[in-house]
Amino acid sequence: MASLSVPSTLPRVSPAVVGAARWRRPGVRVRSRTAAAALGGGCGAGAGGIEQHHGDGPRSPVSNIGKSTNILWHNCPIGQSDRQQLLGQKGCVVWITGLSGSGKSTLACALSRELHYRGHLTYVLDGDNLRHGLNRDLSFKAEDRAENIRRVGEVAKLFADAGIICIASLISPYRRDRDACRALLPDSKFIEVFMDFPLKICEARDPKGLYKLARTGKIKGFTGIDDPYEPPVNGEIVIKMKDGECPSPKEMTRQVLCYLEENGYLQA
């Protein structure tokens, strides 16, 4: 095998090449500062601007929250208003509540589809879907139901902060738990939609066969049968029967869309 020949000295670089390299190097820094200015001028005057702290306010003091100790809230330079401008909409939570079989998931999907067609970013948080992952460790006991709603409320808050129209579809039977979620979202960004349909209508539909199981005692603590449902007192939207007829998914969607349009959620 032939050996490679390594020169004893490296070839000299042309002075012209060195001069060109020296001329180009400062230009990169100038372009970086220019780009930073175009993005909002948040990188500071020095080359180490990326390490500086930015945000909506000063750093919060180290604190203890729940079982978490010595934690610090970190502010970021991009806030909710920036994300909303990017998406051309206002982040909010459309919280659909009602008995099983009242049409919550149907409305959630129809609303999400219509908003998507109109160019708006949405995400549906469905109660059953979340119990496949995030809330799979929770039962349907009262205390677990409260924790279930608390977790969904916190996730929905994050989606709204991201500028997304979050559609939460859950029975959420207890008023205090829904009110706690509302309290997480200031400035009227929590829109409660009550599916106000009689129990007999929901039970007649029984899409999952759960009412039959509850009536025969195979399911305990089922909302509407042996566990109460507390309807909203001052919900933003109430969807109910008209002239003895249930509204179609299209009609229900139109009702929610009108509210979103009239209250400026579909524009930044």
Automatic annotation (TrEMBL):
<dbReference type="GO" id="GO:0004020">
    <property type="term" value="F:adenylylsulfate kinase activity"/>
</dbReference>
<dbReference type="GO" id="GO:0019344">
    <property type="term" value="P:cysteine biosynthetic process"/>
</dbReference>
<keyword id="KW-0418">Kinase</keyword>
<dbReference type="InterPro" id="IPR059117">
    <property type="entry name" value="APS_kinase_dom"/>
</dbReference>
<keyword id="KW-0067">ATP-binding</keyword>
<dbReference type="GO" id="GO:0005524">
    <property type="term" value="F:ATP binding"/>
</dbReference>
<comment type="pathway">
    <text>Sulfur metabolism; hydrogen sulfide biosynthesis; sulfite from sulfate: step 2/3.</text>
</comment>
<dbReference type="Pfam" id="PF01583">
    <property type="entry name" value="APS_kinase"/>
</dbReference>
<keyword id="KW-0547">Nucleotide-binding</keyword>
<feature type="domain" description="APS kinase">
    <location>
        <begin position="90"/>
        <end position="240"/>
    </location>
</feature>
<comment type="function">
    <text>Catalyzes the synthesis of activated sulfate.</text>
</comment>
<protein>
    <recommendedName>
        <fullName>Adenylyl-sulfate kinase</fullName>
        <ecNumber>2.7.1.25</ecNumber>
    </recommendedName>
</protein>
<keyword id="KW-0198">Cysteine biosynthesis</keyword>
<comment type="similarity">
    <text>Belongs to the APS kinase family.</text>
</comment>
<keyword id="KW-0808">Transferase</keyword>
<dbReference type="InterPro" id="IPR027417">
    <property type="entry name" value="P-loop_NTPase"/>
</dbReference>
<dbReference type="GO" id="GO:0005737">
    <property type="term" value="C:cytoplasm"/>
</dbReference>
<dbReference type="InterPro" id="IPR002891">
    <property type="entry name" value="APS"/>
</dbReference>
<keyword id="KW-0028">Amino-acid biosynthesis</keyword>
